[in-house]
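thought: fold this chain, then report.
action: predict
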Amino acid sequence: MTSVLRFSLPRRSPSRLNVGSQVHAARVAAVAAVLLCLCVVSGGLAQETVPANRLMDLGQSSYRQGAFAQALQYWIEAGRLYEEEGRVREQIAAQVNVSQAFYQTGHYKEAGAMLTQSGKLAAQIDDGVLAATIKGRLGTVLFALGHNEQALRTIDDGLVLARALNHPALTATLLNDQGNILTAEKRFSSAIEAYSESSSLARDSDQRALRTIALINAARATIQEGSLPAAKATLDLAAQEMLSASDSYDTANAWLTLGEAYEELLRPRRSTETATHESRRPLLFTKEGQGTNQNSESDLPTVRQAAGSYWNAIETALRIGDSRSESYGWGHLGHVYEMADRTDEALDLTRRALLAAQKVGAPESIYRWHWQTARLLRSKGRIDEATLAYQRAIESLQPIRSEFLVGSRNRQLSFRETTGNLFFELSDLLLQRAASTPDAAGHQHLLRQAQDTVELYKAAELQDYFRDECVATARSRSTDIAQETKTTAVIYPIILPDRLELLVSLPSGMRQFIVPIPSGRLTSEIREFRLALEKRTSNAYVLHAQKFYDWLIRPMEADLAAGGITTLVFVPDGPLRTIPMAPLHDGAQYLIERYAVATTPGLTLTDSRPLNRKHIHMFSVGLTEGVQGFPPLPYVAQELSAVQAIYGGTQLVNDEFRAVQVERGLKEQPFNIIHIASHGRVESDGKKSFILTFDDRITMDRLSALVGLFEFRTTPLELLTLSACETAAGDDRAALGLAGVAVKAGAKSALATLWFIEDEATAALISEFYTNLQDPSVSKAIALQQAQIALLKNPGHAHPSLWAPFLLINNWL
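observation:
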């Protein structure tokens, strides 16, 4: 059986790419080729009647050179021949290799299906080694798909088999895979134990390449745990092992991983560092400290080791003709020079990386090297060229964004902290250029470009949160929805390191306002405001509400008044998603008393059609009783009664409110408003977000699948109301999930709450909202505004903790 090494899937960073990303880049680049290969396999190779064993060897050779699509072609044909010959064991071996090639090209579901089929064949011949191998590979696929718990169970099952068979080589491989998942779960001590045992068993079973990988992975987990000297010692041991490694794709990528790991040592600052292994290439710096303001003298040996590892990767890649690994070697090395402020040399290295990547059509690496080029050009003051390079990076990313996001689910940093920085750096540059452009047409053009860049980012971020490449299909064709209502202003607050930019889309054109507040201070103020808002017994929120009004609204007051604006639609960014805008205060009144307020994750994600009031079909469900450890919601009965009195429709309460009944109701009736009055929680992990039913929990994924039934009907889902949701204070990603709930569920609009409030106030506001919505002259945003004002005018409900958390999301018309 062909032996295929497994690499960890470590975190991504905006300017450095590790081996998990390199492997992913290769599979992304080969996606189109894979599909072509599948079409020609039976025609081309079969005519040549190449023996199956020879095909297996050819596949192995191609795989080692990083030619995954070619390896896939050979192994598929080998499996077909083995099946014809009745050689089941060899057929399984070919299928397992096919699954790994599918994995490398980003076809995770296809890889999983192939392994499932192989597992059934292995069960027929009662081969424990094959069964354990298949479980290990299947666990890796499940891990790539984000199913960490299931992946860990599957690999554990494989480990039990491998240990029972006393098979140290297979046990070592499975332990390395297990360590990867434990690392992603931040169970670093357990991961290090798994890697250490894997390394020892790999040494005893003469698997030198696997031993090296296990050592590097152990070091990276040790870095995460904070034990930097121990991590350094482990990396140095891995480096010594690598010096005698034979040339292969895996060796080149191991050198790249080693370089990345040495760079990771530099991220947390250290007081001392000792180098025990020198690069085989000339040192990067002629003397310590020269040309760098990023690394202290104690860091320089580690920098040299990182650079030396990249040089070794380049040399290996050149000898075996692996242009992808060569590209990453040049690119990583260029980044090291970038960090040393040696910009001209960094540009030259990055251009080499681009040429190598373009030679094999690797779009993920192409986008990264365009991005690196943009940063370098910007640092040299070549702004026009930098802008073009940023735009090329984003253009290169768009076609492969879905595959890229699928392959990055277990990273340690958020999407905003990694790939999102590409969009923000370009937005920053465009906004700076706009601010200094006196020509009105040029100024507007740059602002439009900034808006388009933000919209692209918003779609990608939401897609990343829901781990669903299909989310972006909900995008509308343009961002001109604001032009359809002449009294609406769309506000993009863009958080940049040194300032807050307000990009405002008015019927008369785009406006730009600059608020000189650093992102750190702004985030701190946001956290304090959110906590103060939730404290019903305190008025501490007032000062914060006035401060945020001064930052977010006052700069544009004159423009709003001159334009006759009545509705403000916010496209919030980062931590701003965790606070409502309705309670901002100008010193005399709340913002909601002057303007209707709505929010959207992005205009291109917003269905622009107004509410169809002629045929409202309501489906309302809820819980009044306490179930599954959640407290009762006695006023839900009043809320649901009010909803039914206004719109009628079908209603499920308490023990009637079960997932199976909800599914049946949605399939049988053409509802266009769904009202859910039950406990709900939106988590950072979208797959853990849920709505409570009487006997179960409906995840947001499941809810979106049920609501998705409406996509095949002529009547769209106009509104999804979640009247008892909550997100944790300070959890930006959970707030993103709440903002995107309408998009994910396929609803034109959603009404939801940022935090849980007493159900008496909720019942009153919901009843008022639906009553107002009956008026055809009233938009959904204004219906909510009137309901919130009615509540705040009630002395018992005047505190914003009771009316402010209600958000109208997406379509506000």
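thought: worth noting. Confidence is low (pLDDT under 50) at residues 1-47, 269-295, 406-410, 474-479.
final: tokens above.
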